[in-house]
Amino acid sequence: MKSQTSALLHVMQGILTDVQASYPAMRGLGLDFKRLALYCQTRGLSVFTLDLPALDALLLQGLETGRLCLDGAFTRRTSKEVRVPRFFSGLWLRVFDRDACLLQDVDVNAVFFLRQIFCLGKKLAVECAPSRRNAALENYHVIEQRLRNPSFGWDYDTLGVGQRAHNRALRDCVPVNRLHNLFTKGVCEDSLRRGECGSRNDQRLLDQVQHVADLVIGSLPRFEPLDFSIDRYRAGRGIGFKHGLGAVSERLKNWEKSQFPSWPDKLEEEFPYEFSGRSDGAPTERPSRHETASRLICVPKTAKGPRIIASEPTSHMWCQQLIREFLVDGVNRSIAGTFINFEKQQLSGDMVLGASKDRNLATVDLKDASDRLSCWTVERIFRSKPSILNALHAARTRYLRDDCSPNRGFLKLRKFASQGTATTFPVQSLVFLCLSLGACIEGKVSMQKIRRLSSQVRVYGDDIIIPTHGYERLVRIMDLLQLQVNIAKSYVAGSYRESCGVDGYMGYDVTPVKPKTLVVDSPASCQAVIDTCNNLFNKGLWHASDNLRSHIPARILRGIRVVGIHDAGFSGLTSFSGSDERHLRTRWNSRLHRDEVRVWSISNRTQQRDRGGYISLLDFFASKHNHEHARVVSKFGCTRKTRDGFLWEPLNTGPRTDVWDETVWHGRMSTGNSRVSLQVKRSVDQTRFKWFDNSPSVSARINVKCN
Known about the structure:
With 707 residues, this protein is α+β, with helices and mostly antiparallel strands. 37% of the residues lie in helices and 16% in strands. The chain folds into three domains: 4-124, no CATH class; 225-507, no CATH class; 523-657, no CATH class. It starts with a helix and ends with a strand.
C-alpha cells in the first residue's frame, strides 16, 4: 500500500502533465516536480499539508491586493529581475508580471492550476502535531476569558428577561467619553473630542443594527414548544424532538439515548419532561435533576489544527433539535428567508461567481465565529422574541468539561454555544444576518430597505456576502461585539471571491479539488478516492484523474461502472463519452425481468438490537413518517462496520460510448479564456481515459471558439 506522500506525488505528476498539455511551450515543470519530490524526502507530508497551502494564501493575497509579497517556504525569487517565485515560475508569470504586480489580463487557467497544485493536500484528514493541538486549546480558553459577561441570568435556572429585554441594547458596549478632566488642554482635548465623536458614530452604527435585529427577529413567530411539536407531528414530520447523530457527553450508545439519565430543572422550565421526554403510558418518574456538563472534543480537521467541538448532554440535545427545527421553519416564513436558506447552500456559490466578475459584492469570513459569539450579543439580538430567548437559555449547557487540555477541569461558558450544539448554526446565521444588514443600510432603517438588499446579502453560517460599501462598517461592528473578521480570507477589492466552498475569479470557477484521502485502505476510503477521481476528471485534470485511478485495486476497478455525466442514479467513474458497462458481468433476472450487471459497492454492516417498552415508542413518535408506509422501531440498527462487495444492479440503458456525443466544456484544453467543444468517438475499451491518447482507436475533433 502506498503512503499519502507517494500518492500525492503521483497525482501531482498527473496535474503537471495536464498543465503541460494546456501550455505546450512552458518549460521547467519537470524540474519543479523533481524539486518537490526532493523536498518530500526531507520534510515528508508537511510539504503538501502546510507549505504548499501557505503558497495558496500568498496567491490569494496577491489577487486581492494586486501585489505579490514573497514570504515563507518555496518563495525564493526567480532572479533579481524576475520577482516571482522560482517554484512554478511559468504559471506565476501568467498571473503576475516580472515585478510581481498583477497583470491586467490574468490567465484564469493559470490561477486554477496554481490553486490546484497548492491545495491538493490542504484538507487531508491527518492528525496535527501536539503543539498545534495545544495551541488551539489555549486559544479556545483565551477567547472564552475575554468575552463579556451576560446581562441576564444565563447562569441561573431562569433567564429573567420579561420586560427588561428592551432596556438592553448593542450600544451598551460603547462607553461615552465625557470631558471632565480640567487639566486636558490643547492636543489632549482634541484627541478626546475625536474619541467622543468615534464613540457616537459607533453607537449610531450599533443602534442601526439593533433596529434591524428587532425587525428581522421580530418577524419570527412566537415559540410554543408543545404547540409546534404537535403541528409537526400532524404534518407527518415527527414531533421535532430528536437525538443528534454524534456523541453525547454521557457517552451513551445510540439505542440508550432515549433513557435520559438526567433532566435538569432549567430544562423543565420550558420543556416539561412529562410532555417532552416521555411517551404516553410511560412511568411518570422523572430522571435525575442533575445538569450534566458538555464535553470538549478535538476532532481531526487538517494538519494546521483540530476542530474543537462540544458533545452536549442527551436531554439538552433532544430539546435543541426542536429549537433548531423551529428556527429553520421560522426563517423560511419570515423576512430572514430572503437572505438565509439552510437547505440550498449553492445559492451563495452562485452569487460568488457573479460577484467575482462585477466586484459589487464582498465575501466575509469570520475567525472562530461560534467561539466568539457571546450570550451578551445573543440576548440583545433576540430581545424582541423573549419566547425564543428563554428556550435557547433552557436548552443551553452552562458548564464545559475539558478533558483535552493539560489542565483539566470545568469551565463556565460565556459564549452562547460551542460547535456541536444543534442551535449554534441557525442562531449565528441570524445574528450575522442582522449585523450584515445593519452595516449595509444607509439612513433610517425600514423593512422596505431591508427587502431591497435581498439580491445583495446572503448568509450561511459564518459565510457572509454583502455589498462592498458595507464591508468596513461590518468589520467595525464585529470588532465592537468581540467578533473577528478573518481579513486574510475576506475579499472585497480584487476579482477573487470565496464563499460556501465555491471560489470565483473574474466570473470563472477556480475551485480546486481538495481530497480527504488518496490511499485506498478501507471501503470508505476507496469510495472517497473514486469520488476524487471524478472531481478531477470534471475539472479537466484528466491525467491526474488517471494517475489516481491507478491506485484503486484491480479487482475493484473491474467492477466499477463508467457513467455518463447525465446518467442520474448510477455511481461509478464519470466519462464525457457516455456510459459503458460491457466490461462488467451481466445476467438476466427472471424474477424482476430485467438485465443486471455485477458492480462493486459498499454497504454498512449493522448490529440489530431488540428494544421494547416506552423507549422505542418515543423514538417511534420522533421519526418522520409517511401514511403509506409503516414505521418499525422495535429493532435498532447500529452501524458496526462498513464493508464492500459485489452486487447485482440494473443495467444502465443510457447512451453507449461508441455513439457520437458532443459536450461543451469550459476547460483546460487551451490557453486563455476560451470555450472548447469536444466531439469524441472511440472504440470499446475498458478504461475511460484512452480517448485523449494518440492510440489508433481514437478519433477526436476539437473546435476552439473564443468567447
